[in-house]
UniProtKB/TrEMBL annotation:
InterPro entries: AAA+_ATPase, ABC_transporter-like_ATP-bd, ABC_transporter-like_CS, P-loop_NTPase. SUPFAM superfamilies: P-loop containing nucleoside triphosphate hydrolases. Residues 252-272 are annotated as: Disordered. Residues 252-265 have a biased composition (Low complexity). This is ABC transporter ATP-binding protein.
């Protein structure tokens, strides 16, 4: 199986004092955390807490980022990081008038151009279609796929270059329980067998249990980080969701986070 670059050394992502302003507001506030290599780190928190903004900062597409943010040993946004990171946004970016295989052939040609790379392209396209379990639909037009199948095509595109770091923004939204389970199995294969680092966001707390490690976010801040077990133990909670609520109450009691909730209601669509 292909090795995606496990390296026991530095964390894949290291952030210190990471701050992002959007529309004149601070939406990420002095974050400090790291993301270990070869593991699945879940980025969990309610809608609007800043998960997508943080992911965009990591992949280098977010403006007005201050503080320190190192990704795979380089500053976030360094062009040399591009082939080493796979990023899947919430909106599947596929061409509806091409088949699944044609979509992947196209992106593979961008990644590995030239006649000399033809065999390599064919091998990687077949591999990623298998990875996302779309072999039976490889010749279907993307426009005729279900929402979940389209998002798996986007994931396949991100897997093409065998990236060391995969940043997946709510990849399981709208999927049925069987597909969600299958995708999480794939994430574990990518991390465990291929050494990839995954950062996966979700606002569904039950997905937390499937991660090796969690970053719990609320209102632009990291509320807590650690393994699901450790977070449950530390808060004496039966589930990560209960642990999250406990931590929210604790933060309220110590007077830490929070700008007024009303200041945080800008529709997400205006962000793009
Ligand atoms: N262009 C913008 N101007 C002002 N505020 C913005 C802008 N874009 C996003 N925001 C705000 O930044 C905050 C973080 O948004 P972000 O999309 O990162 O949250 P999220 O946790 O990913 O939410 P969701 O789960 O709904 O995708 C939100 O409160 C949002 O309203």
């Amino acid at each position: 199986m292909m090795n995606y670059g496990r390296d026991p050394g530095d964390p894949a992502v290291q952030a210190h004092d990471l701050t992002v302003a959007r529309g004149g507001r601070t939406v990420l506030d002095a974050l400090a955390f790291d993301v270990p290599r070869g593991r699945i780190t879940g980025l969990l928190g309610p809608s609007g807490c800043g998960k997508s903004t943080l992911m965009r900062a990591i992949v280098g597409t977010q403006a007005k980022v201050t503080g320190t943010l190192d990704v795979l040993g380089r500053p976030a946004g360094d062009p040399r990081l591009r082939p080493r990171i796979g990023y899947v946004t919430q909106d599947p970016s596929v061409y509806d008038d091409l088949t699944v295989r044609q979509n992947l052939d196209y992106f593979a040609a961008v990644l590995h151009p030239g006649r000399a790379s033809r065999a390599r392209r064919r091998e990687s396209v077949t591999r990623v279609i298998e990875d996302v379990d779309l072999t039976a639909r490889a010749d279907a037009l993307a426009g005729n796929l279900s929402g979940g199948q389209r998002s798996r095509v986007s994931l396949a595109v991100a897997l093409l270059g065998a990236p060391e770091l995969l940043v997946l923004d709510e990849p399981t939204v709208g999927l049925d329980p069987v597909l969600r389970r299958d995708l999480w199995q794939l994430f574990h294969t990518l991390a465990t067998d291929r050494g990839a680092t995954l950062l996966v966001s979700s606002h569904v707390m039950d997905e937390a249990e499937r991660c090796h490690r969690l970053l719990l976010m609320r209102e632009g801040r990291i509320l807590a980080d650690g393994a699901p077990d450790a977070l449950r133990d530390r808060t004496g909670s039966p589930t990560v969701e209960a642990a999250f609520l406990h931590l929210v109450d604790e933060a309220g009691a110590t007077g830490r986070p929070a700008e007024p909730a009303a200041a945080r209601t800008t529709p997400k669509e205006s962000a793009r």
